[in-house]
Amino acid sequence: MAHETFTKESATTPEGYFQVEAAGLRWLALAGPGSAQVVRVRSVEEGRIELDNVPNSRPSKASAEAFGHALARTHAAGADAFGQGPDGWDGDGFIGVQAMTLRPEDTWGVFFAEQRILPYAQAAHALGNLNDAGMRTIERIAARLADGVFDDGSAPSRIHGDLWAGNVLWSPKGVVLIDPAAHGGHGLTDLAMLSLFGAPFIDVILDAYAESARLTEGWRGLIGLHQLHPLLVHAVTHSAAYGTQAVRLAERFL
């Protein structure tokens, strides 16, 4: 018989690690009718979180299409500002095992440059996983971002923030999201991470999302810009190969 709940616990996680995860899950779950399904939090305390167990099912085109539409509705629920953390949480957060700032900004470009690009590039550079020339390239794209070159006037979206395939569970009732780094951001950031690491029926998801969100022509060409953050995160935690990939992507937008 399947367990009704799933518990994650660790004595070594930073303070607030599971609490901000719980706040993010609850915030995403409050996105309103038709939004993406999110695993339910049963309880949370320092070093421990208990969640509903999500039964496995085979991915399907129908579930993928439904998820694309639902994710667009989640994003449309919005946030108070770019960089704003989930309701009920006042501090910074985490992406995987790394710290991630959650500080409100008026514009997406400044937020993305200062909180999602430069901190991880600097950390990767310090580790030797991003060379001097690469660091200069990242600084140039960060400057363009901060100058508003890529701002499109869209309001902050309520994004998952760590939407790779491992955080997308396929259940008999459709896709269920887990393990967010939720905050106010740009909707393409979630699509970019999902595209970077792959997912079943990814094209179906993207097409359904684009239809519901009414994305304007050319949005696919910006996916690489939004992939800079997860690539630089991986340049810190994994290897220099991710730093090299980030630099090559950044060069496309200079």
From TrEMBL:
Key word Kinase present: yes
UniProt KW Transferase keyword: yes
Spans traversing the lipid bilayer: none
GO molecular function: kinase activity
Pfam entry (one): Fructosamin_kin
Keywords recorded for this protein, A-Z: Kinase, Transferase
InterPro entries on file: Fructo-/Ketosamine-3-kinase, Kinase-like_dom_sf
Entry similarity comment: Belongs to the fructosamine kinase family.
PANTHER family, per database record: FRUCTOSAMINE 3 KINASE-RELATED PROTEIN, PROTEIN-RIBULOSAMINE 3-KINASE
Name of protein: Phosphotransferase
Organism of origin: Raineyella fluvialis
